[in-house]
Amino acid sequence: MNIFWLLFVSLLPGLLWVYFFYRKDRYEPEPAALVLKAFIYGALAVVPVGFIETPFARSISNPSNLFILLLLTIGVIGIVEEFAKFAVIRYTIYNSEEFDEPVDGIIYSVSAGLGFAALENLLYTYVFGFQVGLIRAVITSLVHASFSGIMGYYLGKAKIEKQPSLIYKGLILVIILHGVYDFLIMSGLVSNYIVYSMVGLFYVYLIMLINRAVEASPFK
User: Which GO terms describe its cellular component (predicted)?
Assistant: First the structure.
């Protein structure tokens, strides 16, 4: 597969999703350069995540029982991936003066999640083909955006309301959601229709949080 098609089903959908969510910030849109930086940071996070998760790959793909699989999807995939996406925002853009309203946490975190998904999708497309890449461009991108955006909501509230404990609440929530979601897919316990319904629910919840954060904007 040539580089054009790889980028077409990985990078382009990721950037289009970023633009879609970016438009939700109606009152004081963030600098495009910072949003793009968050996207790049998220993509770069795939590298350390890959190194950390690789030793567990065999156990995850061939677990001895469902309980072990659940422990691995939450304790490895959920923790490692969600903490990585959280960290690239918390220890960089979070400290910027531009991060000055609750919805900012969502926008930057969603962008990081979509960057992560874009590079991950590029790798999957290269290995498994164009059709897999197209599916992941929609489903996987939206899932990563949703998990990261939910975390970002709590991150934004934590900064604006000066309640650091909200960060832990958000991080724990998305780690569990991510782990359980992956567990249901990998275990084969649910049909694809249930999976797609879950993705839809994550998205609806994210939109609710975005609307709530936008209405709380001091720039209304």
Answer: plasma membrane
Q: What is the pLDDT of residues 187-204, one digit of tens each?
A: 999 998 998 999 999 999
CB 125 within 8 A of CB 132: yes
User: φ and ψ at 13, to 5 degrees?
Assistant: -60, -40
**Is residue 101 left, alpha or beta, with left meaning phi > 0 and alpha meaning psi from -120 to 50?**
beta
Q: Which two tokens stand for residue 17?
A: 């999703």
Which candidate, 17, 43, 13, 21, places its Cα nearest to that of 134? Answer: 13
Q: What pLDDT is recorded for position 1?
A: 59
Q: What is the widest separation between alpha-carbon atoms in the chain?
A: 54
Does the predicted model carry a pTM greater than 0.90?
Answer: yes
Give Cα separations from 55 to 23, 41, 152 (angstroms).
40, 24, 29
Hey, is 6 helix, strand or coil?
Answer: helix
Residues 6+ apart with CB under 8 A from 82: 147, 148, 151, 171, 174, 175, 178
Alpha-carbon span 146 to 68, nearest angstrom: 26
CA 42 to CA 114: how far, in whole Å?
7
